[in-house]
Amino acid sequence: MGKIAKVIFVPILCCLIAGCTDMRILEDQGMIQAISYDMATKDKGSDIALIKVTAAIPLIQKDNLQKIIESTATSSKDARIEFSSQTDLELVNGQLRTVLFGKNIAKQGVINHFDTILRDPTIGLRSNIIIVNGNAAKMLAENYQEQEPTYEFLDRLIEKQVDENIIPDIDIFQFMRDVKDDGIDPVAPQFIQRKNHIDTDGVALFRGERYVTKIDASKGTLFSILNKKMINNGQLNFDWPASQQGDAEFAALDINNSRRHINVYSSPGSNQFTVDISIKVKGSITEYIGTKNLDNKKYRDGLGEKMAESLEKQTQELVIFTQKHSVDSIGIGKYVRNSISYNEWKNLDWRKVYPAIQVHCSAEVEIRDYGLIH
Amino acid sequence: MGFFRKRYKKALLTKENQETQESVSLENTINQFRECSDLVHNALPELQVEYLYIENLVNEQKVKEYLVEPFDTIKFPDVSLILTEKRYKKTADSRSLYKGILNGEAAIFFKDEAYLVNLFGPETRPVNESGTETVITGPHESFNESAGQNISLLRRRIKSSHLKVYKVSVGKVTLTDVYLLYLENVANKDFVEKVKQRVESVETDGIFESTMLVQMIEENPYSFFPQFLTTERPDTASSKILEGKIVGITDGSPSAFIAPTSFFEFFNSPEDYYQRWAVATALRILRYSAFFITVFFTAFYVAVITFHYEMIPRTLLSTLLESRSRVPFPPLIEALVMEFTIELLREAGARLPTKIGQTIGIVGGIVIGQSAVQAGFTSNILIIAVAISAIASFVIPNYIMSASIRLVRFGLIILAGIWGNYGIILGIGLVLVHLSGMTNLGSSYLIPIAPISTADMKDILIRAPFSKLKTRPYQAQTRNPYRQKKK
């Protein structure tokens, strides 16, 4: 190939490789930031369940920071067609950060609505998924903070709560992976709309793709300790009412580091599993109301033991709660699966086995620092 | 004193005239220099001596010392005695006679013979601080337009008989002296031969600058990038000589060129060696970052705003949207207009006298900084991008390299406007292919990255403490690689 031919062909080839990406000039795009799914009220005499989809896109006007577009349709794809006729902007998904599901639609299963989200390559798999206890569209449409649109507020709220381990860090990728995995059931953070703010409602537990129940927000950190191998942040509160053993005490532990180990013991050939969950928490006391002087190592160790005891009890309760609802949200199934052969796991109906297995929780609490009181 | 003072106007010396062989005679010489009003012709009839020199090339003191005084006191028989003194060189060749006169020598005619005595000494600029390569710590001297002065600056720094100064005359008309300086026991002989040969084979009527000469001897004349490092600083030049490289000095030019050079040397400043190693390393990293900012920042802005809205972080989205919403142009045009304006400002500032130059700064600052945004002409984020890339481009110590990089940036901005990030990557790819294909005296331009030389990275990408810098750079291909005692 001659030099001139190269000079001509190389740019032409470059053009071809580039494909046909459309220009997406920033100010012409309606960048959907959050999208919500709810059940719509059914028309009388109609069998088809309608869903209500709303999307929040940023606006540049000073008084109104977000524009909500909504549509009622039979599927999320129909809804999208209706969306685009409501705005002069080109609707794009590349900035999608939060997917909200109303509790009522989550109970029916969420997979169908994920289809578009998963297929569109511009949607990052790190977008959050949350469940709204109530009407998701209504929660998204309302404004809670001045100078800050709701989608942004929500995004920051999730980020902060995840950082403090009050709610699990669940993005689309993790959620879908857990849905497809047979050794774990998915979870999602759940929020609720109060009078003029959004509140954390807890952790929504799913059985497969369907919403089952929730863990209260006060147990969120506890769930994170059980759910994750290690956490580095969070706070645990312990409350002991006055009894014959001693006076009433209250202690708040700021977690520096918490590790969880799961050991599975199984007797071959049978479906009997014993699972040991051991938790090691290192933390600092940030608040203590009680009679004991923590400067004394004896009392300090005593308090640590009391905390561990309480922690064991609470985690045990949490596991039993999931067993009662037959949802393996902690992912014990994955550990069981690793401990046995593939065939054994194939023949096992984990959903049925899980509620019956023995789970034993043990905890250790190490007090690193208890502060100074002058 | 009885002198006849005659001035002859001689025609300009032309190439043809110079090359014809003539016999050495006063008439021929005067004829050769006809219509040159600066030719001084003096006759001493009682001594039968006549002499010629060019007034503007000689030093008055020397004229007095070598011409006036010796012949003033003597009688006719002693003339031949004086002319046997060493400083009077007998010349039988008319061409070297003319060349001598043009180099500031005086031609003395006695009987049928001609003698030359060197009176050269025109006014030169004193050694000043460098205007283009300033440092805060370190020597402030810089080269000036006199090659002799420049060589003296280097000789004073390297007191070694191994320092060779090879002279070549370049330019058929200008006969500019080019001196190649190198350490004989360190520099690679092939490189020395190559440079000598290339400089000698330059065929042109004249050169006035080292940066002009190197464009005639480089291997990739069509490239955007300078291939020989040029410096105005004697400390840089002498450090390169010590590294085993060759330094070229052109008479009449304040810059010296260095061969061979790698791309990364353009990002090093002599001050790196005068600073503590940690500071110097940080400065080098800063300069490489500046390089990337200059090349990519505006292009990246264009790509993101035109194609990749997904990449914008949540916190920046509303600001960007707000500032972009008022702009009537597509991002590519917006960016090109702004970059063009900045280049206008820069060029205007460079050409204007310093006193008016300040006005440019104020006008530019106010017009671009505020009015353009207020009028909705551009977005303020772009102003920041353009301004930061412009500042970053000035961080690069070598002005010629910095100008080349600014030019490459325009290409990338256009590519980014057409194909987005793909275009940027394409552009980098092309530049990288081009850079890695370039050679300098046959050695790679991208040393020490390609071919990789980990030892050199200590002194190119970072600046390791001196105890770690024991070897001369790989690129110099020296026979004598250790610069410190081996332990």
From TrEMBL, chain B:
InterPro entries: Spore_Ger, UPF0353/GerABKA_families. It is a multi-pass membrane protein. One of its GO terms (cellular component) is plasma membrane. Its main location: membrane. It is found in: Cell membrane; Membrane. One of its GO terms (biological process) is spore germination. The chain crosses the membrane at residues 285-307, 381-400, 412-435. Keywords: Membrane, Transmembrane, Transmembrane helix. Belongs to the GerABKA family. PANTHER family: LEUCINE ZIPPER PROTEIN 4, SPORE GERMINATION PROTEIN. This is Spore germination protein. It comes from Peribacillus saganii.
